[in-house]
């Protein structure tokens, strides 16, 4: 589903990771590890096609969804309205089980602007159940989540997404309890004299 070969990625025109290769088959997850600033976000953005690679190849069979730190939730809409909006964007409907999966039943009629950070995160992550993409590229998905919510999200990934033949590449500093293999990016840190590239400024 995903094949990455000898990828070199850059930020602000400076290569940060060099020669990264990895692959994911349907039903598989891989956790990206490495210290702050090693280039996990840059790698995910490059694989998602949001910025060009300096070198190497990315092949994706099917469609990918990239989820960044942003929740993508509109404050002036309720939780249910937010999810209905995203469902309509992707041509589907919101099932009751999605509210259960992300512990949103009691919050469905609350204005999203009144949610706590973790509740907002759960609502943002629930969008992943609506997009119908086979490959999820997840950048620190559990930021703000308590232990119970992390477990809920891991269960969603395992039982809904991976069990349904999806795949996931996840940058995270915590243990999601997924039993997924890990790739430490530290050995792929680009040498200071690595060939440069360009990218667009982004937040
Ligand atoms: N706009 C920018 N221009 C130049 N360099 C940048 C820019 N934004 C980030 N960087 C640098 O690029 C490198 C890779 O950053 P990236 O966000 O990919 O790391 P990360 O592994 O995701 O970090 P974290 O674990 O802190 O989220 C870092 O050294 C960072 O300081």
Automatic annotation (TrEMBL):
UniProt keyword annotation of Membrane present: yes
Encoding gene per record: ccmA
MF terms (GO), sorted A to Z: ATP binding; ATP hydrolysis activity; transmembrane transporter activity
Highest classification ranks of the organism: Bacteria, Pseudomonadati, Pseudomonadota, Alphaproteobacteria, Rhodobacterales
Presence of keyword Membrane: yes
Gene Ontology biological process: cytochrome complex assembly
Ranges for domain ABC transporter: 2-201
Superkingdom as given in the UniProt entry: Bacteria
Keywords in alphabetical order: ATP-binding, Cytochrome c-type biogenesis, Membrane, Nucleotide-binding, Translocase, Transport
Pfam families: ABC_tran
Official protein name in the record: Heme ABC exporter ATP-binding protein CcmA
């Amino acid at each position: 589903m995903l094949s990455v070969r000898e990828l070199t990625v850059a930020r602000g025109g400076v290569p940060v990771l060099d020669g990264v290769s990895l692959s994911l088959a349907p039903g598989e997850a891989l956790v990206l590890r490495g210290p702050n600033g090693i280039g996990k976000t840059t790698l995910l953005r490059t694989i998602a096609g949001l910025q060009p690679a300096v070198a190497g190849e990315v092949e994706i069979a099917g469609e990918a969804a990239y989820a960044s730190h942003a929740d993508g939730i509109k404050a002036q809409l309720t939780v249910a309205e937010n999810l209905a909006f995203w469902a309509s964007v992707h041509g589907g409907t919101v099932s009751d089980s999605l509210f259960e999966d992300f512990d949103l039943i009691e919050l469905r009629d609350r204005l999203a602007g009144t949610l706590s950070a973790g509740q907002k995160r759960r609502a943002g992550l629930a969008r992943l159940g609506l997009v119908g993409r086979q490959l999820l590229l997840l950048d620190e998905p559990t930021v703000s989540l308590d232990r119970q919510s992390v477990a809920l999200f891991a269960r969603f990934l395992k039982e809904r997404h991976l069990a349904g033949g999806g795949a996931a590449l996840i940058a995270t500093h915590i243990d999601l309890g997924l039993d997924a293999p890990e790739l430490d990016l530290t050995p792929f840190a680009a040498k200071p004299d690595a060939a440069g590239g360009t990218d667009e400024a982004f937040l």
